Amino acid sequence: MAETRTAKATKRPKAKKPVRGPVPARRAAPSRAADAMITMQVPASLQQWVVEAANSERVRKHVADALAVSEPLPSVRSLASIRAREQTIRKIRDSYQLLTSSEFAKNAGSRSANPSEYASSKARAWTAIALRLAGNLAFPGFQFDPRTGKPYQQLQPVFEVFRKAGWDQESVVLWFMAPSGRLHGQEPAAVITSDLAAVVDAALDAAAPW
């Protein structure tokens, strides 16, 4: 009988559990403030200059002033007003002309040695109305009599109505260029010579306190 060998089961050694050392601390997520910061490498040749500039009282003041200034963005209404003004000025140029102070003085036959002062004095007295463009007075041509170069005398009551109501001259100029219900949708500037009485009535209506 053949000898039967009984194989002894071989015991495998138990795997040793790995020895864990101290768990490294988790790296903190960068803060939003850190994310917002921008770093840059400054060349060695400029480092001393940057340090001196940063320590300069003048530079610190400029930076503080720049940070303190907060210019509000113009509103939609403001932008619309600016655009309407530009369109009105363009329309005056195309339809009636815009005269400089020197042109006004020359057309009116002024012999003043200072044409600008002559025109300015007329605007201050509300004998003529003007608006400011780039810091200079500009006089709409619809108020001038082409025969004399001077403002229509008949317009003085209209100017006086608005002056007493506290209007500024630019607002009056814009009123002259805007369609009026009192004038059946026509612009006051367009009917100065044909129906001045109606223009006066429309001015009284526009300037009346409500």
Characterise this structure.
- With 210 residues, the protein is mainly α.
- It has a domain at 77-207.
- The protein is 45% helix and 5% strand.
- The chain contains nine helices and three strands.
- It has helices at residues 32-36, 44-54, 57-68, 76-95, 101-107, 115-124, 156-164, 169-176, 196-207; strands at residues 98-99, 131-133, 136-140.
- A three-stranded antiparallel β-sheet has the order 1-3-2.
- β2 and β3 form a beta hairpin.
- The model is unreliable at 31-38 (pLDDT under 50).
Low-confidence stretches: 31-38
How would the global form be characterised? elongated
Major sheet size, sense and barrel closure: 3 strands, antiparallel
Q: What's the average pLDDT?
A: 80
Total strand count, please? 3
Quickly count the helices. 9
The residue fraction in helices comes out at: 40-55%
